Amino acid sequence: MVKIFFVLGVGFLIGFYGLLKEEQIKLNCRLQTVWLLLLIFCMGVSIGRNGEVIGNLPTLGGKALLFAVLSVIGSVAFVFVLSKYFLKKGEEE
User: Fold this and answer.
1) Among residues 84, 62, 64, 66, which one has the least CA distance to residue 74?
2) Each residue's pLDDT tens digit, 31-59
3) Quick one: CA dihedral 55, 61, 45, 43, positive or negative?
4) Looking at the domain assignment, is residue 2 inside a domain?
5) Are 62 and 93 members of one domain?
6) In a domain, 92, yes or no
C-alpha cells in the first residue's frame, strides 16, 4: 500500500510542477486509457471465473441498479440546489 501512495505522490508532484512536455502529456493520456481498459478486462475475467458472483448476479444486479439510480438522483439534486444558490448569488453582484 505504501508503494501505491508513493507512486501517486510522485505523479502528483510531476503534474503539479508541470514537469511534462505537451507530447509527454498526450502519451500519458493514451497510456492511461490502455491500462484502464486492461484493468477492466482483468476485472471482467475475475468476475466471470467466480461462480459465487455469477450465482448472485440477479441480486447484485438489482442492488447495483438501485445504487446507480439513487446516486444519479442525489447528484442531480445536489448540483441543482448548489447551482440555484450560486447562480442567484452571482446575479446579485
Assistant:
1) 66
2) 999 999 999 999 999 988 988 888 888 88
3) negative
4) no
5) yes
6) yes
